[in-house]
């Protein structure tokens, strides 16, 4: 019992001695750290507002703001440790060793973050663009450091790790997506009249606003002249508008008296001479 009391007394004396000798340094370190965190937050908000004023991409703006805040906090922490007489050299060495081990353990995650930084800096696409990558197509809804989120017409969220975007073939069609269809009409139809009807349908359906549609003879089939129709529609309404255009084309051709022929085969029977 006496030995335990002595140990407790030794610990108590050590704590008292520490606070007597380092109380002002500790108080100064806490004050420096608090002031530094306040300054870091205000500077980060100022940087974010400046980036928004310069009309930078929101993802890039937030990244720059967060990076500035972290740099200031790390610098203040080093100053605070110095106030306590603690050398930061061993910490730097330890952080380096830990970073090396962590880098090997989470190589895939770091690759995603590196690719995310590349996307933020080079900006191959921004929120609201329609992209196709790795066989997936959708409207860019969110861009994060580790992954990018696409959203399609069915409101399905598609999450793609950024390392599968950078370095791959990327299709970016802004906010719209190309729709294509083939319309076959009989050989007796007037091609000019057919194209006039098709243009009128697209204009009525409101799909001519993004880009001028392309309509022309695509091929000559066995039973029909095949007209190709290419037009751009908002990605979020792609199937809705494409189906509506197809229905409207069918009805408009019927009203105009233009025939959509069935596949036909001509069979001739030759009488053999006796």
Number of domains: 3
Please identify the top-level CATH class of the largest domain.
Mainly Alpha
Straight-line distance between termini: 133 Å
Counting helices, strands and paired strands, the structural category is: alpha+beta
Poorly predicted regions are none
Q: Strand tally, please? A: 8
Tell me the number of helical segments per DSSP (H or I, 4 or more residues long). Answer: 6
Topology:
Layout lengths: L1 H52 L4 H26 L5 H17 L1 H16 L7 E4 L2 E8 L3 E5 L5 E5 L9 E2 L3 E10 L5 H15 L8 E7 L4 E10 L3 H18 L19
Antiparallel strand pairs: 1-2, 1-5, 2-3, 3-4, 6-8, 7-8
Helix pairs in contact: 1-2, 5-6
Overview of this protein structure:
With 274 residues, the protein is of the alpha+beta class. It folds into three domains: 104 residues, Orthogonal Bundle (Helix Hairpins); 48 residues, Roll (SH3 type barrels); 80 residues, Alpha-Beta Plaits. Helix content is 53%, strand content 19%. It has six helices and eight strands; from the N terminus they run ααααββββββαββα. Strands 4-3-2-1-5 form a five-stranded antiparallel sheet. The chain has a three-stranded antiparallel sheet with strand order 6-8-7, with helices on one face. α1 packs antiparallel against α2 and α5 packs across α6. The protein is elongated. The mean pLDDT is 81.
């Amino acid at each position: 019992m006496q030995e335990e009391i002595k140990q407790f007394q030794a610990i108590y004396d050590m704590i008292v001695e520490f606070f007597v000798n380092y109380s002002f340094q500790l108080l100064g370190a806490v004050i420096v750290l608090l002031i530094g965190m306040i300054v870091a937050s205000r500077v980060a908000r100022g940087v974010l507002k400046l980036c928004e004023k310069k009309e930078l991409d929101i993802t890039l703006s937030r990244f720059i703001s967060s990076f500035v805040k972290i740099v200031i906090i790390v610098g203040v922490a080093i100053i605070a440790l110095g106030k306590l007489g603690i050398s930061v050299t061993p910490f730097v060495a330890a952080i380096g060793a830990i970073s090396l081990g962590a880098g090997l353990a989470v190589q895939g995650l770091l690759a995603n973050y590196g690719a995310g930084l590349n996307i933020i800096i080079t900006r191959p696409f921004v929120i609201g663009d329609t992209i196709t990558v790795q066989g997936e197509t959708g409207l860019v809804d969110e861009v994060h450091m580790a992954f990018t989120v696409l959203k399609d017409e069915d409101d399905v969220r598609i999450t793609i790790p950024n390392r599968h975007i950078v370095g791959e073939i990327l299709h970016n069609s802004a906010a719209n997506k190309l729709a294509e269809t083939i319309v076959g009409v009989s050989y007796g139809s007037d091609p000019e009249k057919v194209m006039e009807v098709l243009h009128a349908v697209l204009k009525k359906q409101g799909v001519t606003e993004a880009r001028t549609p392309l309509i022309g003879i695509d091929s000559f089939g066995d039973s029909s002249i095949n007209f190709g129709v290419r037009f751009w529609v908002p990605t979020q309404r792609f199937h809705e508008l494409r189906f509506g255009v197809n229905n409207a084309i069918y009805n408009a051709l019927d009203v105009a008296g233009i025939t959509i022929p069935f596949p036909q085969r001509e069979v001739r029977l030759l009488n053999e001479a006796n």
